[in-house]
Amino acid sequence: MSNIILHIKDSYYFEVPKALWRSKCDSIEKLPPWLVRLDSDYQNFEAAKIVSSLRTAGAPEDSLGGLVQDWQAWKESKPGNSGWPLDAFLEKQSAELNTRASKWAKVNAPDAAVSLKAYLSENTNKEPYAWFANLSNEKGFQSKWLEIKAEVDSVDFLSSYKKEAPSWGDEKLAFYNKSLDGKVLIPQPFGVLKNAYEPYSGFCISKYMIIQVVVALLLVYAMSWLAKKISTGEAPKGKLWNCMEGVLLFVRNSVVVPAMGEEDSKKFMPLLWTFFVFIFGLNLAGMIPWVGSPTAALATTGTFAFVVFVVGVSMGVKTFGPVGYLKNICPELGLPWYLAFWVVPLLWVIEFASLFIKHAILAIRLLANMVAGHAVLLGIMGLAVGVHAYAMHSGAWGVLAGASVLGMTALSVLEVFVAFLQAAVFTFLAALFIGSSMHHH
């Protein structure tokens, strides 16, 4: 995939080489519903229904005349506008209008009760969607608008399009099949997708969710196997047993104990060991072709950092009490009272803010390191593709392609080390933050 962002972004499909997975949808009924909803013919069908419903709801006729044409022109004006349905277009225009009105009112009419009315009283001719913004502020129309949206978003409306609209020809089906080649779509029994990267409603199962569950199950199996071996009381035998215990001892003696001390490490080692092996497993998943690393998503790393934050605050409050914990945020400086009167409150505010900042950085740090590695690999691979496109079959492409393969191989080995290192660093910082919350500074 040429787009680096989409390559490292979570999705609702697994991407494999197109030759291994060909889409063979021979009718509109077999295509994913979200793909049909993104089709321009379907969106025009949906737009006609929305305009008809708006007319019934009391929208001014003169504003509805060129609405569909304006929406279509807007979709073509920028790449980011493509695929937006008419209802989303209207809501976006209304939101932007309200934002402009609020900014204008702060300067020109600070005492106005309703910013939009004050703004439109002087700028009505400049705002073609003022009618929708005004209607959106009426309670009666709000409920009607929600009904209109619910109707066009329903499964019944999609089914009616499939029945009433002319059948899609072989050319259009071939186009969509080609776009689905190489994409193993994940079934969504509990939710509805907006597209291949965004949920629309309900609980949608993404690629990263499946990877996390698989890694978690593998770790449960591995740790259960190790626990049974240890419970026998025998000396470690075999490479796997020795390797797992060796890594465990490394994490305990070289990561956790230096960060929080011998005594505290006994209490928190189960949590921190779980952090290490789970993050390491997720990082390694990114090295498997066509899989991906969930630690390249902020939701994953943010959740890890949030758990560290909750555990740290909880243990700090348990150790010192709520007031004592807040006091302990600011370190003892030993200043005379006339300096402490000014310095300590300011320092406390800084330290209190840093409590949140350092946990946010903990999440971003892991995310950035994993994303950077994948981006570099894609960049090196793109060099060969770019030169091939420019020089076609000249010798330059062969030389650079060979260098790219060697470079990617070397960096892939480095990525395995980075996967281990970043899991260890996250575990170390987590131990440091939790330990510091339970001790006087």
Give a short synopsis of this structure.
With 441 residues, the chain is mainly alpha-helical. The chain folds into three domains: 1-22 and 181-202, no CATH class; 24-168, no CATH class; 210-437, no CATH class.
Average pLDDT: 85
Unreliable segments of 5+ consecutive residues: 1-5
Note the run of SSEs as H and E: HEHHHHHHHHHHEEEHHHHHH
SS elements, strand count? 4
Number of domains: 3
- Residues in helices, as a percent range: over 70%
Q: What would you report as the Rg, rounded to the nearest angstrom?
A: 29 Å
How much beta, percentage-wise?
under 5%
Strand order, sheet with most strands: 1-2
The major β-sheet equals:
2 strands, antiparallel
Shape estimate = globular
Quote the distance from N terminus to C terminus. 50 Å
What structural category do the secondary elements indicate? mainly alpha
Individual helix count: 17
Write the layout of secondary structure elements.
Elements: H1 4-8, E1 13-15, H2 33-37, H3 40-57, H4 61-64, H5 67-77, H6 86-108, H7 115-123, H8 130-136, H9 139-153, H10 155-164, H11 170-180, E2 183-185, E3 191-193, E4 199-202, H12 207-231, H13 239-260, H14 262-285, H15 298-328, H16 337-391, H17 395-437
Antiparallel strand pairs: 1-2, 3-4
Helix pairs in contact: 3-9, 6-7, 6-8, 12-14, 13-14, 13-17, 14-17, 15-16, 15-17, 16-17
